[in-house]
Records
---
Amino acid sequence: MAASIAGVFEENLQKKILESKVLVVGAGGIGCEVLKNLVLSGFGDIEIIDLDTIDVSNLNRQFLFHKEHVGKSKAEVARKSALSFNPNVRIKSYHDSILSTDYGVGFYQRFNVVLNALDNRQARNHVNRMCLTANVPLIESGTAGYNGQIELIKKGLSQCYECKPKPTQKTFPGCTIRNTPSEPIHCIVWAKHLFNQLFGESNADEDVSPDTADPETAAEAGKEALATESNNKGNVERTSTRAWAQANNYDPEKIFNKLFNEDIKYLLSMETLWKTRTPPQPKLWGEFTEACVSENSVEANKSRDQKIWNIEECAKVFATSINFLKDEFIKLAEGDHLVWDKDDKHAMDFVAACANIRSKVFGISQKSRFEVKSMAGNIIPAIATTNAITAGIVVMHTFKVLQELYDQCQSVYIRLRLTGRNKLFDPDKVMIPPNPKCYVCSPKPEIVLKVDTKKMTVKSLRDDVLIKALNMVQPDVIIDGKGVIVISSEEGETEANDNILLKDIQIVDGCILKADDYFQNYELSITVIHKDVERDDAEMFEVVADPGLLKPEQQNLTAQSTSKNNVAERMETDGNNSDSDCCIEDEEIISILSSVVIPKKRKLSDEGPSEKRLKSNNEDDDLILVD
Ligand SMILES: Nc1ncnc2c1ncn2[C@@H]1O[C@H](COP(=O)(O)OP(=O)(O)OP(=O)(O)O)[C@@H](O)[C@H]1O
Ligand SMILES: [Zn+2]
C-alpha cells in the first residue's frame, strides 16, 4: 500500500494517513472508487455507510460489486471487496441511512474527515449540517455525466452545502401535464402520475384527468361540463382513478378507452384550449389503423428497447403491464402500494406505453423505451471515468485536509472540454467563504416563510416546511415571545395541534417562530408572512432564504447580481444540482436569485413506511428535465 511504502508520501502525511479515521457516506459510483483509493493509499480506519442493496445496473461501474452480490448490502460488499486489496485495514460497514438518528453529532466527531459520495440533496444537506455541528471537515463530491465537482466544506472557512440556493430545476404546470402536453416529457410525467394513481401512492397533485380549472379555460371553455361536473379543485367530480379502475377489475381495454377516448373527448369540449393548438385525436381500443412496421424495416430490426413502438405494440405492452402490475398490487396488504422504479420492467413498460399512446393522441413525437427510461428517471449516463477522477481528487483533498492545508482545497470542477481557463480540471482560484446570510451556517440563521396561515395546518408546517423543505429531522417549534409550543419532537406531546390551522394557533402575519432541531443542533428563526393562496393546487408556501431580499428591489440589486454571477461562474454540476453518478435527484423548484421557493408538492418517489426499500425520498425521479 502506498502509505506503507516509504517515500511515496512525505513522512508526516504518511503518519496522518495511517492514524486518521475516515467516514465514507455512500457506496455507489463514487463511493466504491473512494473506498478503493483510501485502502490503496494506506488509510487504516474507515467506516462506510449505504442504505441500499446492489442492483444489476450498478455493476458496470461500481466495480467492487459482482453478479453474485446483487441484492446484498452495498456497504457490506464494498467492505469485503476492499479488504481483499488490503486485509490490514479496519473497515466498518453500516447498511443504513445516514439520516437515521442513530448517527448523531457524537458519531461524526469520531472522524477526522467525512467524504460524501451521495446522490440526493436531502442526505447531502443533512451530512452538511451534522459536519458543521460536529466541526468535522466534509469533502462533498458529485458527478453528472462528464462533469464532476469536489468541494471542501469546513466550518467558518468555506461555503457550506446550503450557503447558496440551488439552481432551478424544470417543472411543468399541472395543466400542461393534464390538458395540453406538447412535448414527450409532458406525456412521460403524466404516465408516471397515472402509475401512482392506479398502483402507487396516489396524490391529489398528480391527478391525470382533465383539469377544468385550467386558467386558459376560465372564460368559457368546458362550458356545461365545467358547471356541472367539476369541483372547486378543477377536478372532474367522479370516483378516483384507482377506485374506478378497481371497480372495473383493471380491465386494460376499459382503462384505455377511458384515458385515451373519453377523457380526450372531454378535453376537446374545452374549446378554448384548441384555438391555437392542434386538437388531440381520441383513440379507441382496437381501432389501430396504423400500418405495422415492416419486418425488414430499420425500426423492426432494432431491439425492443431501442425501437419506437407503433400504437398497436404500445397497446399490447399497456395491457400486459397493467395485468402484471394489478397482480402485484392485489398481493399487497391493505393501504400498501407499489413504488415506481425505472429498473422494474413492468413499471417501466407501463410508463413507456402510456406516454407513447398519449403522445400519439396529441400528435407529439414518440420515443423508444430506452429514451423514455432516461427521461423518466432523469438519467444522465453515469461515466465510470468521471467517478474515478472525482474520487481521486476527493482523496487528494483528504490528504490536504489531514495536513490542514486548507488553502489548497479549493473546489475543483471536472469538464469534458477545456474551460475558459484552458483546463479540464478547473479549480476555483480561492476558497469561497461562507455566506453570512446562509440559513444554515450563519451565526443566526433566519428565513422568511410566506404562507397561507388560513390554510396550512401545523402538521403541514412540520412535514412540508420544516422537514421536507428545510431538511430538519426532529423539529421543535415555539412562538417567539409567547412561549407557545407549537411542535414538539417528543412523541405525542403536540399531536393535538396537528390539524389546527396556523392562524388558529396564533401563527399569523408578522409572527416569529423559533425552530430548533436538537439532533442537528440547529436553530432557525422564521418570520411568518401571510399570503393568500387562491387555487388549492397552488404553492401553499414559499421560503425566502435571505430575508434581506424582501427589501425593495433597488437595495438588492448588487447582492442579487453577485449571487447570479457566482452561480453562472461555477457552472455547478452535481455538488449543488444533480447527484453523484447517474441521476439528477428529485428536488423541487429552487429559484436561483431571490429566494428558495419550494412548492408544497409531493414527490413521486416519496416512500411511505410501508415500502421495503429504505431509500431516501429524493431520488432519481420526476419532473426534472436534464438538459
Ligand atoms: N441517506 C442515505 N444514507 C446512506 N446512503 C445513501 C443515502 N442516500 C443515498 N445513499 C447512497 O448513495 C449512493 C450514491 O451512489 P450512486 O449515485 O452511484 O447511486 P446508485 O443508486 O448506486 O446508482 P443509480 O442511481 O444509477 O442506480 C447510493 O449507493 C445510495 O444508496
Ligand atoms: Zn452555509
---
Amino acid sequence: MTPAARIATAAELLDEVLEGAAAEKVLTSWARRSRFAGSKDRAAVRDHVFDALRCLRSFAALGGAMTGRGLMIGMARSTETDPETIFTGEGHGAAALSDAERAAGQPPVSDAEAGDMPEWLWPHLTRALADEAAAVAEVLRHRAPVYIRVNTSLISADALARELAAEGILTTPGPLVATALEVTEGARRLASTIAFGEGRFEMQDAASQAICAAIPVQDGHSVLDYCAGGGGKTLALGARATLHLTAHDVAPERMRDLPVRARRAGIDVHLAERGELAGLAPFDVVLCDVPCSGSGAWRRAPEGKWRLTEDRLEQLLGIQAQILDEAASLVAAGGLLAYATCSLFEAENGDQIAAFLARNPGWQVETTRRLTPLDGGDGFFLACLRRI
Ligand SMILES: C[S@@+](CC[C@H](N)C(=O)[O-])C[C@H]1O[C@@H](n2cnc3c(N)ncnc32)[C@H](O)[C@@H]1O
C-alpha cells in the first residue's frame, strides 16, 4: 500500500469508530478481509487510527470536519504537511481535496480542544493538576512508551536486557522503579521471546509497577488482590515477597490467563470466588485496583477519552465507593487497604478516600502517591490505609 492508500484506509476505519464501533475490532476485521495488506501496512494504518483518536478534537478542528477524512486532513496539517500531497485522487489514495475542504479548518480554540480533551473534563483535569494540566494533556496526545517488568525473583534487569538484546530487542532502564525496562526496539516481538515464555518478564507500565512497589508487603503476608483483572498487579506483588496470594474479580473470566502466567513466573496464586472471601479473611493486605475512568492511561487507550460520559463517571464513583467498603471488611486489625486507580481525577482519587474515611472510622491514611504521565509512565493514584 502507498502512504496515501494507508491514510485513505485509516479515514474509512475512523468513520466506523466515530459511529461507535471499537477501534480494535474495526482494525482486526479490516486486516482479515484485506489479505493484500502486509504487516507494515497494518501497523501504519493502526498507528494513523490511534494517533487520530489521541488527537481527535485538534485534528478535527484543523481538518474542518469530525469525519475520518477530516481527521486525516487535520493530521497532515498538524505536522505541516500539505494535504494536497496526500489527497491526490491517484491510485488507491483518497479523493482529491474539494474547494470546501481546502478552505475549512482552523487551529483549536479552547484549552480543552488544543489539549484533545472533552470540554466537560477540562475542569476535572485542572482541578487535579493545576498548572500541569496542559502539559499532561499534551503527553496524552502522543504514543505511550512500552515498558516491561523484570521478574527479579528470576533474573536481574541487566541480565534480561542482555538476553533480549541477543534476540534484537533493545531496552533501556525505565523510569520510577528498578524493575522497569523501556523497550526501544522490537516491542512487537516481546511475546514470542523465550524469556517471556519462561516468566522472566511481563508487559506492565512503569507507573503500575511503581504503585505495586509502594505497597508494603513482606514474606508471610496474606494478600488479596480484590480487583485482579488480568492479574498484572497480583504478579508484581507476588514477585516481591513470598506471600499467601489470593486473586478475585467480579468477572472471573478476566483472570483466565492468570494461572498460566503465575506458573511461568514461579508464583502461587489462589483464585477465589466471591463466596469464599469471608472464609479466607482476614488478610494482612487487600489491594483494590478499582475500575475507573482510565484517564491516566488515555495515551494507551485513547477511545476512553471520548466514550467517558458524566453519567458513566458518576456510576464509576459509586462502584469505587462500594468496592472500598466491601474490601475494607476483609482487612485484618492493623492490616492495610491499598486503593489504586489509573485515574488523574480527584473525584476518583483523593475525594474517594476522604469519603471512605468519613464513612468508616478506625482507618488512617499511611501513604498516598500520585503519578502523572509527566513522570514517565501512566497516571496512577495509590492510597494505603491502615486499620487502627
Ligand atoms: C482496573 S481493572 C484491574 C486491573 C488489574 N488489577 C491489573 O493490574 O491487570 C478493574 C477490575 O475490577 C473488576 N471489578 C469491577 N467491579 C468489581 C467488584 N465489585 N468487585 C471486584 N472486582 C470488580 C473488573 O472486572 C476489572 O477487572
